[in-house]
Description:
Rossmann fold; 4-stranded antiparallel sheet
Amino acid sequence: MNALEIKDLDVYYGQLQAIEKVNLIVRERDFxxxxxxxGGGKSTLLKAILGLVPIENGEIKILxxxxxxxxxxxxxxxxxxxxxxxxxxxxxxxxxxxxxxxxLSFFHKFTEEQRGKARELLEKVGLDKxxxxxxxxLSGGEFQKMLIARALMTEPKLLILDEPTASVDAKxxxxxxxxxxxxxxxxxxxxxxxxxxxxxxxxxxxACLNVGLVYHGDPEISEEVVNSLFGCPVELVAHGVPHRVLxxxxxxNNVSGLN
Length: 259
């Protein structure tokens, strides 16, 4: 069964078309990175999958069912910058919020089973010793791991992440990819990034999006695909592993560098 099927998807913001005729299939236990420039529709595509924005045309299926019916099978990790890091709440309390289906009521009380599960997930992501720490005291990498643990509370079949390494250093970024690589043994993963260099060796497939789908296939994309994606010649320079972007290529007529 496919984890995700998108057919002829169109999404508009008013008169502006954000997504145009996107077709995409993600198989179970794939690890797909969606890359593209700012404003290219990456976050909009995620919101459409999550049912957070209306779609004009097309169809989205999650594990064989429509996305409204099977939305509960998705775990979502938002952008680091979209979360209030100064809110007075502890790490384990944030993770417990992932167990709520219909919002937090004033008198809500979590069960011991839910608390035990939250502690297990914090141990899995390496934050068990920080369970009672205020979230304002976390580093960027620790904060992101906490959000991943929260998304795992419902035991999702599909994990979606929006720019998971955008606000962390290289060491924390690699830690997060190691964690996602381990989770990918049981869970399908889709992440978006505007950073060409954030494509880890754990990624099994790449989709390039700039309103329309420019490319969907192997993560070792060609220079032509990247130039088409960004609309101008781009030179890509990668240093070492585990990141990979382009195979060896020749030519000296490119005009900009990313590293």
